[in-house]
Write a structure and sequence with these properties.
The protein is mainly alpha-helical. The protein is about 80% helix and about 0% strand. The protein is built from eight helices and no strands. α5 runs antiparallel to α8.
């Protein structure tokens, strides 16, 4: 991958993470000023960046998927408006996380150093991580805490243990594998404090993109 393509992937990842975190802060009513402005500017710039990346590397399948996912999220955002129904909000959140992971994957494929993750076990981890992210996003939107929250918490512990084992020597992955569930439990302890819940979103998103990057390096 050329340096410009790597730069575009990094910019796209940064912008999508800003969109996801700003959207979570708005939905959680954290009271942080300027979140809607950050959300709109970052989302608009991400469209420009993905078009730039597509122009440079149109034949890459991952880039084509990123372009299509960006178009889909733009349509969903227009349909949902500022007060989207739960299904639209969940689709928007899951799509944003998927796009962030995709940019991390594209960036990771350009790396030259091999990851220490166990290649034979990474598909299992990827499947579990996708399931956990989907469950967490759905819980955050529809608030089915009484029914699905215990399963979400148990799966988080399983994922953390598995990732700590797979990512031996990768300190950042290990740290995020521990930080994400701890942030989630802290949010529960503080009775779903908006700021604690936002910290959980940040930790979970960081874990997702870091894992996607590592998986790309292992592929």
């Amino acid at each position: 991958m050329r340096p410009r393509e790597r730069l575009a992937a990094a910019l796209g990842l940064t912008l999508v993470l800003l969109v996801v975190i700003a959207a979570a802060g708005i939905r959680l009513e954290t009271g942080i000023p300027g979140l809607r402005v950050v959300h709109r500017i970052a989302a608009s710039l991400e469209v420009v960046v993905v078009l730039w990346l597509a122009w440079m590397a149109w034949r890459r399948r991952a880039v084509q998927v990123a372009l299509g996912l960006t178009a889909l999220l733009s349509v969903i955002g227009i349909i949902g408006g500022q007060q989207p129904p739960p299904a639209i909000a969940a689709a928007n959140l899951l799509g944003g996380l998927a796009l962030a992971a995709l940019f991390a994957w594209i960036y990771g494929k350009s790396g030259s150093d091999p990851t220490r993750m166990n290649r034979g076990q990474t598909p299992i981890f990827a499947l579990l991580l996708a399931l956990q992210v989907a469950l967490g996003a759905w819980l955050s939107i529809v608030e089915l805490y009484s029914a699905a929250l215990p399963a979400h918490g148990m799966l988080a512990l399983v994922l953390s243990a598995l990732l700590v084992w797979l990512a031996r020597g990768k300190r950042l992955l290990v740290a995020l594998a521990l930080a994400a569930p701890l942030a989630g439990f802290s949010a529960l302890h503080y009775e779903f404090s908006p700021l604690a819940a936002l910290a959980h979103v940040v930790a979970a998103a960081a874990l997702l993109v870091t894992a996607a990057y590592a998986l790309a390096r292992a592929a």
